[in-house]
Automatic annotation (TrEMBL):
UniProt domain Chitin-binding type-3: residue ranges: 34-79
Name of this protein: Chitinase
InterPro entries the UniProt entry points to: CBM5/12 (IPR003610), CBM_sf_5/12 (IPR036573), Glyco_hydro_19 (IPR016283), Glyco_hydro_19_cat (IPR000726), Lysozyme-like_dom_sf (IPR023346)
SMART domains: ChtBD3
Organism whose genome encodes this protein: Streptomyces showdoensis
Signal peptide: 1-29
Keywords, sorted A to Z: Disulfide bond, Hydrolase, Plant defense, Signal
PANTHER family reported for this sequence: CHITINASE 12, CHITINASE-RELATED
UniProt entry tagged with the keyword rRNA-binding: no
GO biological process entries: carbohydrate metabolic process; cell wall macromolecule catabolic process; chitin catabolic process; defense response to fungus
Length: 300
């Protein structure tokens, strides 16, 4: 009897030991994020939308009530973290960019297939300070500001090249020591901020480590290069303004200063108020998609 009892105890100890050694069951992955919440959409009871890394379910009819706010009726029910399991609730996209692919698609529903989210994410590596400087709100405001301006410049990321072909021969400054090796009419506007002039192609190419002076066509053929030229201008060039667009957003100068950096007096100080308002409206739409305030000093 004693021998049998010892055998049973040994078996129990073995099982307990195994239980201790077995790894704990990993937590269940967060569910996929629903389509991003849109201020202009109408939601009825049971419909879901994602916002700031959580899924939300509408209890009844609602429009333009931001998920996460109680409002008068507390219409949204929090369904928990979605996307990346909560490692960054403010950004459920695995790319690490503060704008998710779903939000990018929401911002540019009619974009040209040439302008890809993957191309944008690849271009971010050239300027790691972009949309990563400051707090979460500032990061998202800068991303929204850049994307609002490029949306304005390209008709919603639709146009890849400048449409007025009559301008093409004018963008070559032959007095530059390197001249225009790709041809007199080769340096027309391309990409998200419509890079133009031989000296800009030379400077952008040098900064990115590629030869755009001799091969400017890469900007209209390779999505990542196109986006990188836009980020080059945004992060390093002050244009007719007093600061770069990047510095304007991270230092609190406001969205209006990004317009100065891109088009200066052609739009600002009464140059073309309709164009300024177009940029501002788009920026306000994009910050709303990202769930952050637009901030002050929107106009120029």
């Amino acid at each position: 009897m004693l021998r049998r009892l010892l055998t049973v105890l040994a078996a129990i100890c073995t099982v307990v030991g195994l239980a201790v050694l077995l790894p704990a069951t990993s937590a269940a992955a967060a569910p996929a994020c629903a389509a991003p919440w849109s201020s202009g959409a109408v939601y009825t009871g049971g419909m879901t939308a994602s916002h700031n890394g959580h899924n939300w379910q509408a209890k009844w009819w609602t429009q333009n009530e931001t998920p996460g706010t109680t409002g008068q009726w507390g219409v949204w029910a929090d369904q928990g973290v979605c996307g990346d399991g909560g490692t960054d609730p403010g950004n459920p996209d695995p790319s690490g960019f503060v704008v998710s692919e779903a939000q990018f698609n929401q911002m540019f529903p009619n974009r040209n297939p040439f302008y890809t989210y993957a191309g944008l994410v690849a271009a971010l590596k050239s300027y790691p300070a972009f949309a990563t400087t400051g707090g979460d709100t500032v990061k998202k405001q800068e991303a929204a500001a850049f994307l609002a301006n490029v949306s304005h410049e390209t008709g919603g990321l639709y146009y890849i090249v400048e449409q007025n072909t009559a301008n093409y021969p004018h963008y070559c400054d032959a007095t530059q020591p390197y001249g225009c090796p790709a041809g007199q009419a080769a340096y027309y506007g391309r990409g998200p901020i419509q890079l133009s002039w031989n000296f800009n192609y030379k400077a952008a190419g040098d900064a990115l480590g590629i030869d755009l002076l001799n091969n400017p066509w890469r900007v209209e053929r390779e999505p990542a290069i196109a986006m990188a030229t836009g980020l080059w201008y945004w992060n390093t060039q002050k244009g007719p303004g007093t600061m770069t667009a990047h510095n304007a957003m991270v230092n609190g100068a406001g969205f209006g200063q990004t317009i100065w950096a891109i088009n200066g007096a052609l739009e600002c100080n009464g140059g073309n108020p309709a164009q300024v308002q177009s940029r501002v409206t788009k920026y306000q739409q994009f910050t709303q998609i990202l769930g952050v305030p637009a901030g002050a000093n929107l106009s120029c």
